[in-house]
Structure formats: C-alpha cells, structure tokens
Amino acid sequence: MELSLVKTTPVQWLQLNDKVAQGYGRNFLASIAVQVPLLIIGSLALDGGQLSQWVVFSITAYWLMALFIVIRRPRSPTRGDLIAIRFGFLFILMSFVIATCIRWTFLRWQ
Questions:
Q1: Which whole-number Å values give the CA distances from 100 to 7, 8, 50, 94, 107, in the listed order?
Q2: Burial level of 31, CB count in 10 A (0-12/13-18/19+)?
Q3: Contact (Cβ atoms closer than 8 angstroms) between residue 85 and residue 69
Q4: pLDDT digits (tens, 9 = 90+) for 52-64
Q5: pLDDT tens for residues 30-87?
Q6: How far apart are CA 24 and CA 86, in angstroms?
Q7: Which among 5, 32, 42, 71 is most buried, taking Cβ atoms within 10 Å?
C-alpha cells in the first residue's frame, strides 16, 4: 500500500464554491453579528482606546483561528469547529480582558 499526496494549487484546493460556505456560513454570520456592534461600541467608548484595542486584537485572533479551522477541515467541520466559529470571538475577547486585568493587578503590586 503506497501513500501518495495529491498535488494541487491552493486555488484548486479551496475554492469559493466549495461546501465551506454551507457548513460554516450561519456560524460566521452569527459571529460577525456580534463583532460589528462590539467594534462600533469599542470605537465610541471614551476609555482611552482600551476597549477598542481589546476588540481589534480579539477580531484579529478570531479570524486567524477561523482561517486555520476552515483550512484544516474545509468540507467536514466537526461540532467543536462550528462551536468555535460561532462563539470563539466571545471567548477570545473575554481572555484578552481577563489577561489585561491580571496584568494590571501585577503591575500595581510592583
């Protein structure tokens, strides 16, 4: 039994008309529906840009994670993949907020 790798270009491997949109579509829309209002609220907050910074960093980390998930399983997402796509942004945002609060706490002790 011989193992062979299929040689394809990235354009052939993941095209826009693949079933990626069918499997991930609703979850991406739900995540975008949360990201856009939070980005607007974060941009309008008068906190010196801290909330805006959290949201922008979280959006960047989320889309890198989502890209990795879709490239890894473009045609057959698992339930965990779909949950990560739908709710991953909120978990990443909470992680940034908690990490910043912990950092501020330790800086206050010094």
A1: 44, 43, 10, 10, 10
A2: buried
A3: yes
A4: 999 999 999 999 9
A5: 999 999 999 999 999 998 989 999 999 999 999 999 999 998 888 888 999 999 999 9
A6: 9
A7: 42
